[in-house]
Design a protein that fits this description.
Helices cover 18% and strands 37% of the residues. By secondary structure, it is α+β, with helices and mostly antiparallel strands. The protein is globular and about 55 Å long. The relative contact order is 0.18.
């Protein structure tokens, strides 16, 4: 994949446990993503469709850098499953089983496990209310919202609810209700989880800027951290998502996220698609 050319803009489609991404590789040129391009590509009827867009950039301090965009054109600071997918792509390119990358979270590590899954260190959870961020000083372990949720930052803000039956939650109603609560000045990803066993959770998610998704890597990390803080689980947790199984291990060096990755296809956006965006408000 390269930067835009008269022939169009190459891209790749990947997913991790059904959490799907468009991936652009801008290492040989400048960044190309704009809010208008992200919205156009994210449209599942008129574009390609994705939960997030990941743009690979060159880095002087790591093997590569990553920027993330939501399908509504907004930026996000972290995306665990996209990080795992791009790491899989880059490890194959570099013929290696480990590498480093840079996101807004700082320098992260990724590894290929013996079973083929990809694991990435998503960094330490953010527990300070100002850094999550929340709009005012409250106990992040017990937010003053119906359902007594937990706030955890993983490079983006998360609000985790523990419920009797995650299957029974109407995500399309409850997700936006809490995403836009005044307590979250940057909005929030909303997770609903129910306990299966001390090392096993069922989790469903509403992502800010994307809506209902089949899985969320940073959300899985936040939920596992919140579950341990509540005394529900240990630090190593399996999470059943709508799209598959993710595994989280909260270690001394950070929160490690592991799961499957899949390459779907490579394609090229035609010049006419890109030209139409020139008349779109950024």
């Amino acid at each position: 994949m390269t930067e835009p050319s008269p022939q169009g803009l190459p891209f790749m489609k990947m997913h991790g446990a059904g959490n799907d991404f468009v991936i652009l590789d801008s290492r040989t040129g400048g960044a190309v993503t704009t809010p208008a391009l992200a919205r156009a590509l994210g449209d599942r009827h008129r574009g390609v469709g994705f939960d997030q867009l990941a743009e690979i950039r060159a880095s002087d301090v790591a093997d590569f850098a990553l920027d993330f965009w939501n399908s509504d054109g907004s930026r996000t600071g972290a995306c665990g499953n996209a990080t795992r997918c791009v790491s899989d792509y880059m490890m194959r390119q570099l013929d290696r089983d480990s590498l480093t990358l840079v996101t807004q979270r700082g320098e992260l590590q990724a590894r290929r496990l013996k079973d083929g899954r990809v694991s990435v260190n998503m960094g330490h959870p953010i527990r300070d209310w100002q850094a999550v961020p929340l709009s005012h000083a409250v106990d992040p372990d017990h937010l003053p919202l119906p359902g007594d949720p937990v706030a955890v930052g993983m490079g983006n803000p998360h609000c985790v609810f523990f419920v009797e039956n995650a299957e029974a939650v109407d995500l399309a109603v409850q997700g936006p209700r809490f995403e836009h609560d005044p307590l979250f000045p940057q909005r929030a990803n909303i997770e609903f989880a129910s306990l299966i066993a001390p090392d096993h959770l069922r989790m469903r998610v509403w992502e800010r800027g994307a809506g209902v998704t089949l899985a969320c890597g940073s959300g899985a990390c936040a939920t596992a951290v919140a579950a341990h803080l509540r005394g529900l689980t240990g630090r190593h947790v399996r999470l059943d998502m709508d799209g598959g199984l993710l595994e989280v291990d909260w270690r001394d060096d950070g929160v490690w996220l592991a799961g499957p990755v899949a390459h779907v296809y490579d394609a090229v956006l035609p010049p006419a698609f890109l030209a139409a965006l020139q008349d779109v408000t950024p």
